[in-house]
Design the sequence.
């Protein structure tokens, strides 16, 4: 299962990613923030598209959940790291990163 250490390693391996504090969490950003890591390292928030979010929440509801606010309506998704394999986490982070480097969205 994935850990906060895996999350940080994968996020920082994505081109141009920097790490900084963000409202009590750790943010990972390239052009904009695409993911944040909770202080306890158990969960992370990812900026996905609403369609990606819906699919992940349907396929793996124990691992992914829509954030219950306006950000969640736009694709902000909480990932329970202990419920994800490292490869699944990597794919989700890469998706979020791609949206952040894209000029559109």
Sequence:
């Amino acid at each position: 299962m994935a850990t906060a250490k895996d999350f940080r390693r994968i996020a920082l391996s994505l081109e141009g990613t920097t790490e900084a504090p963000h409202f009590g969490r750790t943010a990972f950003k390239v052009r904009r923030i695409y993911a944040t890591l909770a202080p306890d390292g158990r969960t992370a928030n990812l900026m996905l598209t609403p369609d990606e979010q819906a699919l992940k929440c349907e396929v793996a509801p124990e691992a992914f959940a829509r954030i219950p606010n306006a950000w969640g309506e736009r694709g902000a998704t909480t990932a329970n790291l202990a419920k994800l394999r490292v490869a699944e986490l990597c794919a989700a982070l890469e998706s979020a990163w791609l949206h952040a480097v894209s000029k559109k969205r």
Q: What stands out?
A: Residues 53 and 61 are 10 Å apart (CA to CA).
